[in-house]
Amino acid sequence: MQSIDTESGTCAAACFCLLSGRPALINTPNLLSPLQQPAEGLRSRASVFWKRVSLTAKGKYEYWITPEGLLKIEGWARDGLKDEQIAGNIGIRRQTLYEWTKRFPVIFDTLKRGKEIVDRQVENALLKRALGYEYDEVTREPDMNGEMVETKRVTKQVLPDTTAQIFWLKNRKPDEWRDKQNINVTTEKHEKLDAILSQIGGEGLEE
């Protein structure tokens, strides 16, 4: 006969006894002697036990739509993690995460909000690099009491970065700053150019 101590919470042993058909004794401090646990009681305890295991298992959507779970998802998105990486942290496949975003709008909104924050931060950093900026370089040294104090502050300047400027302009004003310009040559202009080349001894423009 299996003895089960309710104070230690050994519900797993109760489940084993239920499945194996072995009788179980429940030791409770409020009773003078152990009592035979009814089979229906064991079934109820087993149901609660396995339900808890299911709800706390990694990857179950129930947890990830709670405020705590959504906060984690938003934090991962804000840190710049890709959907595949976020799905890995949750314990699911990327396709499953995609299905969750369609099934639960709160997850979709959370991912979008987190990504918008980091995108804005990158935009601000790129603009700052493109325009140039100043920063203070601070030197600290220990004083007579051993405390670190500021002894020198120098303002330095970072010059504008042309690569960042070009990248910004190509994305913000693509019609004016793209590498390849689309030049439409009309038939009339084509004929004029052909005539000019013929006059200077050229062979003209090929069709």
Number of helices: 10
As laid out across the biggest beta sheet, the strand order is 1-2-3
| Average pLDDT figure | 74
Q: List the helices and strands in order.
A: EHEEHHHHHHEEHHH
Q: How many beta-strand segments? A: 5
Class inferred from helices and paired strands: alpha+beta
The major pleated sheet works out as:
3 strands, mixed
Shape: flat
Taking the alpha carbons of the first and last residues, their distance comes to 98 Å
Strand portion: 5-15%
> Radius of gyration from the CA trace?
36 Å
Contiguous low-pLDDT stretches (5 residues minimum) are 1-12, 14-36, 52-57
Q: Bin the helical content.
A: 55-70%
Fold and architecture overview:
The chain is α+β, with helices and mostly antiparallel strands and about 210 residues long. The chain contains ten helices and five strands, in the order E-H-E-E-H-H-H-H-H-H-E-E-H-H-H. It has helices at about 10-20, 40-55, 60-65, 65-80, 85-90, 95-105, 105-130, 160-170, 175, 185-200; strands spanning about 1-5, 25, 35, 135-140, 150-160. The strands form two sheets. The chain has a three-stranded mixed β-sheet, covered by helices on one side. A hairpin with a 5-residue loop joins strand 4 (about 135-140) and strand 5. Helix 6 packs across helix 7. The radius of gyration is 36 Å and the shape is flat. The termini are far apart.
